[in-house]
Amino acid sequence: MNRTIIDLYALQTVPPSNLNRDDTGSPKTAIYGGVRRARVSSQAWKRAIRLAFADLLDPSQLGERTKRVGESLARRIRALEPELSDEEASALAANVFVTGGLAKLDKKKGELKDVESGYLLFLSHRQLDNLARAALEAERGGAPLDKARFKTLVDTEHSIDIAMFGRMVADMADINVDAACQVAHAISVHGVDNEFDYFTAVDDRKADAAETGAGMIGTIEFNSSTLYRYATVDVDALHETLGDPAATRAAVEAFLTAFARSMPTGKQNTFAHRTLPDAVLVRLRDTQPINLVGAFETPIRETQAAGRIELAAAALARHTAAVENAYGERPVASWVTQVGEQTAVLADLGKSVSFAELVAGVSEQVDVALGQSALGESGFGQPALGQPA
């Protein structure tokens, strides 16, 4: 096989927190290895990563996911043609989505039923800009904006976040975009029992009335855990959607950075839970993604001699070597960023570097894989970064 797959692994210790809660307010959990584990859903961390893109990429490289697509388009139409009233711009925007088949006319009144989509619609900023220009061009008697042209405009110039996380349009499946990344649910490497924080809120004026007692009583459920996290990026699929090596490289760099630095914000003001990973391992593969969660099928149990992060790092190192040796899955390149002696065992799995050097090293190898420098066997330069010659 000749693929370009980036596997990302992280071990991250989180203090008492409620990062991602269910419909009852409890921290999400999962049974793995017959033991209940703390869990942070894939969706929660993907949203955190996507929001982090706003600080890492130019707005022109991003998109927006909203039901209020008519409002977004009308705002752009008015920016291009300030003489139009809000109502005129909104009507033009609504007609665009009626033409495209994503909004409907009220059959009784012959009016627009709603300028909102019936579901979240993910469009790049450039796609919205192009639709705005096309709508004004058609209004002025230029090229008509028919359904075929609408589809072309919303199926080209995809943003990095659309290419990375994908897009599904129920009413127009031919403009769907397959996601280039997969993000696993983060789970604790050990079993957890949720705890409850019983709290009271005091009325500041109660003393004036010579009253006692709390103004409010409540509980918040929480846990603390050492999480195993995994994600993978299919660079070939990413490049196919973006169609530009520079954009693909920017997307990879942004994803690596956001994967390590972002966190879901659930109850963050109550728990101040933001941490950085104790270790990040990146494996560049040319065959398939490999989730190494099996390292923690047997839950980690801390001892007096070693804590959870140290034992988890050792388990991940052993399992990685065992799986890759058994299946002949030697990575093309590998990098490790680890903090302190507790995770030092992971340094044997790749080139031990700072996180900035890790991002730069992966980015260089992506350039090589996309043909931006001299190509070696299997599309990669030889010897690979992070591996001995």
Describe this structure as you would to a colleague.
It is a single chain. By secondary structure, the protein is of the alpha+beta class. It is about 35% helix and about 20% strand. It has two domains: about 5-60 and about 180-195 and about 220-375, no CATH class; about 65-160. The protein contains eleven helices and 14 strands. The strands form three sheets. Strands 1, 2, 3, 8, 9, 10, 11, 12, 13 and 14 form a ten-stranded mixed β-sheet that branches. A two-stranded antiparallel ribbon has the order 4-7. Helix 1 (about 40-55) crosses helix 8, helix 2 packs across helix 3 and helix 8 packs antiparallel against helix 11. The model is unreliable at about 375-389 (pLDDT under 50).
Q: What secondary-structure arrangement, pairings included, does this model have?
A:
Elements: E1 5-17, E2 29-32, E3 35-40, H1 42-56, E4 63-66, H2 69-80, H3 86-100, E5 105-106, E6 111-112, E7 121-124, H4 125-139, H5 147-154, H6 160-165, E8 181-183, E9 186-188, E10 195-201, E11 216-234, H7 235-242, H8 245-261, H9 268-271, E12 279-285, H10 308-327, E13 333-338, E14 351-352, H11 355-369
Parallel strand pairs: 13-14
Antiparallel strand pairs: 1-11, 1-12, 2-3, 3-9, 4-7, 5-6, 8-11, 9-11, 10-11, 12-13
Order of helices and strands: EEEHEHHEEEHHHEEEEHHHEHEEH
Low-confidence stretches: 373-389
Shape: flat
Number of helices: 11
Q: By helix and strand content, what is the structural category?
A: alpha+beta
CA-atom Rg in angstroms: 25 Å
β-strand amount: 15-25%
| Biggest sheet overview | 10 strands, mixed
